[in-house]
Design a protein that fits this description.
Elements: E1 12-16, H1 19-22, H2 34-40, H3 57-70, E2 75-79, H4 82-85, H5 94-109, E3 113-119, H6 125-128, H7 137-153, E4 159-164, H8 166-174, H9 186-209, E5 215-226, H10 231-253, H11 259-265, H12 277-280, E6 286-299, E7 308-311, H13 327-341, E8 346-350, H14 367-385, E9 390-396, E10 415-417, E11 424-426, H15 428-436
Parallel strand pairs: 1-2, 1-9, 2-3, 3-4, 4-5, 5-6, 6-8, 8-9
Antiparallel strand pairs: 6-7, 10-11
Helix pairs in contact: 3-5, 7-9, 8-9, 13-14, 14-15
The structure holds ligand GBH.
EC number: 3.2.1.21
Catalytic activity: Hydrolysis of terminal, non-reducing beta-D-glucosyl residues with release of beta-D-glucose
Protein name: Beta-glucosidase
Length: 441
Amino acid sequence: MLSRFDFPEGFVFGAATAAYQIEGSGFGGCGPCHWDTFAATPGNVVRAEDGSRACDHYHRWGNDLDLLRAANMDGYRFSTSWARVMPDGVTVNPEGMAFYDRLVDGMLERGLKPFQTLYHWEMPSALADKGGWTNRDTCHRFADFAGKITEVLGDRVASIATINEPWCVAWLSHFLGVHAPGLRDIRAASRAMHHILLAHGLAVERLRGMGQDNLGIVLNFDYCQPATDSAGDRRAAGVQDAIFNRWFIEGITKGTYPAEALEGLAPHMPENWQDDMAVIGQKLDWLGVNYYTRHIHADAPGTAWPATRDVAGPLDKTQMGWEIFPDGLHHFLTRMARDYVGDLPIFVTENGMANADVINGAEVTDQVRTDFLFAHLAATKRAIADGANVQGFFYWSLLDNYEWAEGYEKRFGLVHVDFDSLARVPKSSYHALARALARND
Ligand code: GBH
């Protein structure tokens, strides 16, 4: 079994969460966000569940930080809700700001490095109503939010990520319609694909000007496998790889977008988008990689661009129906280093699995999650041996939580949460990780 001593000195082990998925948006003067309205519309979310109470982390944060500490973790990846800090998208809510101030101090008191994410999907409704990420002005409002919160937290956080998973924010939410705002519109999607990176760039520019040297972005990657060796299936996997895995990193590091994706998106992009590429392409201090699974793509001739369809894969699947494929993590870590970022520090900012865990007295035995986690740690170790400068790994997630369109049914946590009593019970995977992370002293 791997332990922390199999990784380079200073490697950061941690767990990740996101504000809307755990805090409970019904407390502390938090403003409404587009997930509240999206969830309230029947058909969007399982049982129309929302994040208004979630894990009640807003009141139980001290206990939750204790759980990270007791598992011998070095860091905690959390997000700071825009709607909590700025309920109308513009004006600061002091109570919301004070919450994150306490939370960050609480991490430092426990020896946990704070890894902050600025946008993990709670767009204030006031801004969503003006078009959200389809509206260029939102990018400037986001930079203002980044500046305001960094005035308060910037001296204490180890790291700041601008955006969590631009693909989900743009494509999943505006083209596939699965996440808020639930659009299926190529024009809205094309604009969001660009504006989300412009927001990132404007925020980096603002924070760099304030002296921050710990700035990054968190991208999500799905391994794209052609269903067969045919030219059509290889084209299908290639175009999905361009949309999913190349668009954002190439926008940032190469100053342009992949031709295979522009083929479908260029006609709908904001005018003169090329003029924004310098802001988007500013130097980063680190890159975050989120990785869960792979997809098998087949050609779908005669259907609308991108003219692909997904094919079921043969590997073991998680509760989400996602194939378990640890080699994909090795693939993306080494590919990022080789093709895009060289020696820049890379963090695995999310990796994890949902499982239909059953609680038995005070025990939850989730051996499959332990196996999943250690297989992905092993893939990370191999990527380091192959030259990728990986400096940390965060399991998704510390707690069972609000799994967006899947509501509360899908359990990703190292810690079980009873969504009636809100009791926390560490699972056997939590104990296995705690043992692996024990220090000698
Ligand atoms: C992350 O996104 C999020 O950052 C986090 O908030 C969330 O709770 C967590 O993952 C678990 O879902 O076509 O259905 O097979 C995950 C990004 C993109 C990974 C889609 C899996 C396969 C989608 N995901 N991908 S599907």
